[in-house]
């Protein structure tokens, strides 16, 4: 526990106490970091040279092009929340599935996934779908717990589906490509939507009265006109998804550039629905400014803390404690996900990503865990922070737009089955990492046993061919190049080559095959 001194555990405990007391997270982290930095300097456990790097760290945060994706995606989501796209999608898909039990629930899940792929923000999805679909579901006999639960859960899918803001932040903290994080999240996104849909299917069979179909006079006739209307509503979304995700996956744009394209597309959609007004833009800019400022301040505070914490060997202390967990990598992942799940009761995903993930990433890397898999796994886990008490923001959003007839207890109780399904997905990803890694481009595979190095003008026949990499080179060391031993006829530098051995022609570069 104290192998690396008492200061790293004291720093960690001080951070927890400050945050539990209710101080703003950004200022708490900065205060704890600077306070223990001064103590470390006075006691000789910490060098003031570390603190001289703080201005450079701050400048690095402000000048980080990757983090520019956050205001772009936030602004895009704020515009799409008010442009009328969700209304068209929900109306069409609701009528399309309305003839079967649970039809509206299927529509909410599907539209939630589509909105997640074009907005990247939970608030926009939950509020938009809650305002539109909750009154209709309650009016036609849906169980209040089911109705509120499916709306909140379908909104939190946004956390996992690219272009999720959480994935951008995690990519930055883990030092990985945002494009790879987005590719890795494709499998879990599909699995999450599938699990939610299967739950509605099973529930509609066991208890169809809790989710009755819409009356025929409301849903209308199921014909090609209705299908065409749904497809017409989907087309702008598909175009916007290509602008944002397609350009990233094809290598045509960086995440920041794709975010800018998404903003242009969102404004075009708002203009198409005749809702692009100056008050809408002002409100979207105000929301974007607030979220971006919060993220930057938390990142600056966490930088102060992590700089001092690492200077006190705190990262080695964390690695020493966690690397000895029974079960190897799987045991570590189970422990970390339980820890993150508990933290999510009190911290939001930005705070977890900036404070906890930098401490865990070196341990995961040391255990040989793929950091893309690790990041996507934590992202799936952190979506539960929106769904469980006492700080489930998706539940707060839903409570703010639900009528007084909907009890707060129904909102909270209705969320529990969906939290369980999110945790089920966490378990699946732990024991099936290929659901994440199979989507990644691993590059060309090279068999080292077939690699040969030829040096022109050295050896018999005018050149020397070294044995393949990974084989026994003749000197008893597997994986060596098999260079001739000292004193042999190899003609090492400083020795005269043996009779009949041509000298090395340094004018010709080595050839690797």
TrEMBL record:
CC per GO annotation: plasma membrane
Keyword set includes Zinc: no
Subcellular location as annotated: Cell inner membrane
Signal peptide: none
InterPro entries: DctM, TRAP_DctM
Compositional bias annotation for Gly residues: 471-493
Highest rank taxon of the organism: Bacteria
Name the UniProt record assigns to this protein: TRAP transporter large permease protein
Source species of the chain: Ciceribacter sichuanensis
